[in-house]
Amino acid sequence: MSSEFVKKENNKVSLKVTVSDEAFKKAIQKAYLKNRGRFNIPGFRKGKAPQKVIELQYGVGVFYDDAINEAFPVEYEKAIEELGLDPVDRPDVDIETLEPGEPVVFTVDVTVKPEVVLGDYDSIEIENVSSEVKDEDVDAELEKSREMNARLISVEEEAKEGDTAMIDYEGFVGDEAFEGGKGENHPLELGSNQFIPGFEEQLVGCKAGEEKEVKVKFPEEYHSEELAGAEAVFKVVVKEIKRKELPEMDDELAKDISEFDTLEEFRADTKAKLEEEAKKRAESEIRNKVVEKTVSICEMDLPEIMIENEIDSMIKDFEYQLRYQGLDLDKYYEITKSEEKDLREQMKEDAEKKVRTALAIEAVSKTESIEASEEDIEKEMEKIAEQYKMELDKVKMTYGGQNMEYLKESIVTRKTIDLLVEKAKLV
């Protein structure tokens, strides 16, 4: 086998791959052994006719297609490795020479990863991100805990925003009740915007036992076409008004909702947790800013096929999320009144950003000779085992082959970003 560049322009590479006559004859032999059972030749049992006899009967090229499918992928992989190419798309292959007793010459056109010209990532400056936790932040978090432990009590007063009204209701368009417009003993928090616009506001001021006609207009973009834009009347019976009663912010509350005996201890623990969360958020934001800055000072001519491939991957992930919710893409398109081209267009900007980021990080990791060591891999597997409560041996079995390459890439990416953050100047 031999290979040679013909030209390289705009991430498009043309090359010639030559398969020796000897190698192609071996591929023909494999094709014969694989397909001889398909031929019925007079004087021979099915599948027992010699190769030469079949070629005399059906032509010398009878096994060429299968031989090419046998020989080309192997020789192509050797060629791109020999020439140091990194294809991002399927090759477009033409046969230039195919004559009995002669080497087979293929002409291959393929798109490869672009060259990335890195900027001066040693001199990156970004604005620092504060991880300070203020007293009012702690107060707000304690108030959330207090709210979560509030109890609802019945009141005889008029309902106000924030109260929960227990209601029976039935909706009508004209004189006709519509499907899905009826409910009983429904708890509706006024001001929560659970119902269509204008509904909840009309219950403010009502008392328990009161009957009310609520007039509304359904939004023009309502999911039910029959009701979209329609004017409707809901006959509502307010059965009960409930109001939140908040517990006192004291030691008793701390005992009830935490492992601490005093409010002071609970407050200190809450502050420590908020500080840890703020620290992680700040670190994450700094990492994101450094990566964005690194990408912004890189130059690369991005092939469109890389963006399209990334969109394909994003759509697969999106479809998986939909299925988890009991939907599929067809249903999504129906609900949103859109098509695949609309979804692809929505995803294009993010896809391009992801590809540019991946290429920039890869370029830095190669420049800095960053690799995933055996120690790195072992530590990562131990972390995964701990996170998912798995035995380490099972984790190691899971990460074989392609999964191992993915694990290595993740480690290299993380180490590369670590280095960029280390080099960056926070101002």
What does the model show?
The protein has 427 residues and is an alpha+beta fold. The strands form 3 sheets. Strands 6, 7, 8, 9 and 10 form a 5-stranded antiparallel beta sheet that branches. A 4-stranded antiparallel beta sheet has the order 1-2-4-3. Strands 5-11 form a two-stranded parallel ribbon. Helix 7 crosses helix 9. The model has no long low-confidence stretch (mean pLDDT 92).
Report a brief summary of the structure.
It contains 12 helices and 11 strands. The chain is of the alpha+beta class and 427 residues long.
Features:
four-stranded antiparallel β-sheet; 46% helix; alpha+beta; 12 helices; 427 residues
Query: Tally the helices: what do you get?
Result: 12
Radius of gyration: 34 Å
The string of secondary-structure elements, in order, is EEHHHEEEHEEEEEHHHHHHHHE
Low-confidence runs: none
Question: N- to C-terminal separation?
Answer: 56 Å
Helix content: 40-55%
Q: What structural class do helix, strand and pairing data support?
A: alpha+beta
Average pLDDT metric: 92
Shape: extended
What share of residues are in beta strands? Answer: 15-25%
By DSSP, the count of extended strands is 11
The major β-sheet equals: 5 strands, antiparallel
Layout: helices, strands, pairs:
Elements: E1 2-9, E2 12-19, H1 21-35, H2 51-58, H3 64-82, E3 92-97, E4 104-111, E5 125-126, H4 135-148, E6 151-155, E7 164-173, E8 176-189, E9 211-217, E10 231-245, H5 251-257, H6 263-296, H7 304-324, H8 329-336, H9 340-367, H10 374-387, H11 392-398, H12 402-423, E11 425-426
Parallel strand pairs: 5-11
Antiparallel strand pairs: 1-2, 2-4, 3-4, 6-10, 7-8, 7-10, 9-10
